[in-house]
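**Paired protein data**
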Amino acid sequence: MRRLCFFAFYFGCFIPCQARPNQPISLETGVSIDGAICIEAETGNVLLEKQADLLGHPASVTKLMTLLLVLEDIQAGKTSLNTPITITAEAARQGGSQVWLAPGETFSTEALLHAMMLHSANDTSVALALHRESSVQSFVQRMNRRAQQLGMSRTQFVTPHGLTDGAGPHDTTTARDLTKLAQTLCQFSEALNLSAKKDYLFRPGPRSVYLNNHNHLLDSFSGCDGLKTGWTVAANASIVTTAKVNGRRVIAVVLGCKSEQGAKPSQRARDRLAAELMSKGLTELARVEPPKALPTASTLARLAISKPSSKEENFWDFLDDIF
């Protein structure tokens, strides 16, 4: 009985306090969003959220799922960062943001991933998709299967890049679903290495393209090391970003941020809101003690049945006095 009391005391003392979700998230005048959320990367605990289950269009944030599938294939030994990929006509004619691929050119998987993550190149997204599956449609089907496996129950992908051409349908998701994707990606060091890189020279030579990362929080927010921004006229401005400070990592998502003043103000408002989410999230984590290692079930069983020494008897008597 004494030991049962001690175990109750132990667990009662060392089960960590939970963070407080639904803290106020401020929106600037004239700014609207489709959703926002900040979680602890390790546990998935929600630190802040605002209409996180509202549907919106992720735009180029969609490329994070393309990245995940490629990295998982690399992990499984099906391809590698050094694998050469020959550009097809289908990839070369993909519009929107691009690095002007030409049919017959060959690039490493790593080079194409840099162009996709830093420059948000749609043509490289198609090239990667066609390298991993027989058609873009087959790759998109795989994207949706993986989304369901991750618990992204309100997500539907229709492209490997997120471009919102014509009337649709377009890629659809929620801020909460995107945290599940980001949590998985944060387990890949290469995902963070790619998304934290600020610049990259693509296709060295006469047709080179100097790429700058679109995530400006890499410069302005201490500890930020990823992941991806997105914007189109139909989708507005979105971001999935992450930061690690003092060993604690947060993931923040802003989906469909729109300012009445236009595109660039929308993107700046998105970045400010994402920074606020990460700042408040990290402050909350600093307040909450990280989980402590608890004894295993086998250890507890051994303690419960072992015969105490006289010294241990004095310890249990002391605990009896406490209780």
